[in-house]
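# nightly structure sweep
# worker-07 picked up a monomer target from the shared queue
# config: single-sequence mode, recycle default, output format = structure tokens
# input follows
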Amino acid sequence: MTLEQGIVFAVLGATLALFVWNRLRFDVVSMLALLAIAVAGLVPSDELFAGFGHPAVVTVAAVLVISQGLVNGGVVDNIARLLGRVGHRPTLQVLMLTAVVALCSGFINNVGALALLMPVAIWMSRESGRSPSLLLMPLAFGSLLGGTMTLIGTPPNIIIASYRESGSFGLFDFAPVGGAITLVGIAFITLVGWRLTPQRQDSDDGGKLFSVGDYVTELRVPQESGFAGGTLHNLLTRSDSTEDVVVLALIRGDKKSLAPSTYMVLKEADVLMVEADTDSLQSFLDNTGLELDSTPDDNAEVAGEEALADDASDEGDIRLTEVVITPESSLVGQTANRLNLREAQGLNVVALARQGHRLNRRIGDVRFQAGDILLVQGQDEVLSGALQNLGCLPLAERGLRLGRERKTVLAGGLFIGAIVAIIGGWLAPPVALVGCAVAMVLTGLLNTAEAYKAIDWSVIVLLAAMIPVGQALETTGGAELIAAQMLAISDGLAPFLVLTIVLVGTMLLSNVVNNAAAAILVAPIALSLASELGMASDAVLMAVAVGASCAFLTPIGHQSNALVMEPGGYRFGDYWRLGLPMSMLVTAVAVPMIMLVWG
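# output follows
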């Protein structure tokens, strides 16, 4: 082993350790690795940041922009809404959800496809009286399977295509292997797999997650109140208490103002419609001196939300809706009080649920997590834009559409045009996809701010930084050294066993590090091994691509797995129950198919 090889192995070992430790963001870790090999002089300074202009990185960015364009055009939204008609049979629900998310994941970012269909799955579960845990893990695994079917389905495929010496793989070159494991995987999940998921029972017993009526009370500002003549903001901030009270409406005479501004001036005899649990309500009354205007009757539980809905209908501009926080949301790690959501976005956070249960803590001080479900109130004309800006997705049952349905044909036509240009060989994939993304901006499917926001810059930085690191592994001879050790172990083994070792090894690695990083690290090693054994390089590259994309064993291996963890109520150790048989099944199907098509 040379000094340069030793440095590369040390850098990669530290990088993998930091990936597994998961205390630093993976893009930060990848930049540290890039800087380490730069300081060691293993990559020329003029090539150090060449990864940012690598065709694979540009293609991934373009695919993410196109995905947002298709969402804005209403293409995926229209598909998702059809799932509400499949009935309540769990087998049929699992089949339709996994099939649709797999199909979408083949052509748009698989995390984006999952994020759009996850609220639908939660709604279907609750309508059927079952826990969301039954559907969410199959949905996540379906998105992983679907990404293996095309070149643009997942970043590892794009990365692997860049390592092919005889030219990049075509758009559907991954389809024979990816399609086979997707079909078999969906069949297994539908017939057997969903029964292996943990059955987390909701306290709601299948009912609606949020029942506002229990907590809606009317409070009157009494004569000579110290808060009369002051703002609503003053009332809420100077009550000197920790109660969690949300003001839903202000009633003055015959006029009712829903979601009133906190800068509205209160008057004597004003009535506030508030949402609070009994303890918070009592504390609020004690600290403000407000009086109960009326006591909810026995039908309040049913009437509360219906009354708000009726009032909203009368005014025509207020809506009460449930939304899911996505991993990319600016809400993650923040609190409603810190973000000042009411004044900044016009949103009133009425309730919050996590892992299928409504939180009874003070909402304003709770740090939001990806997968949290919020019940929000806001003006209809600003609600859609506010949710998009915050990275939240509405539940299907509320009928709020983020996409611009009138442009569905335009969005679908531009995307199909790019696909045809790639298949026909008229344009290289990066050129066609970047052209499609630019066309979507020019035609108004999304503006430039949305285009930049759609790009997951952490993934871009990861890819751009790790590509030179992977090249350093190859140029220093480190990949050949590892391949030689693997050759000694696999000496005399049949080619299909070697492919199995490569695929399983990549799969295990991708369960603890980012899947794109796993592909970058294993690809040069696999190519060196194929060269030593005289195997087809395309075969080992396909094995790496499948292994990198099929991280079923842990929630940290892929963003799709992490996204469903909170709303599904899953624990870290729950994933292997369905993930282990899925991994074995993928291996059993993929290796023969790779041998048949590429061997």
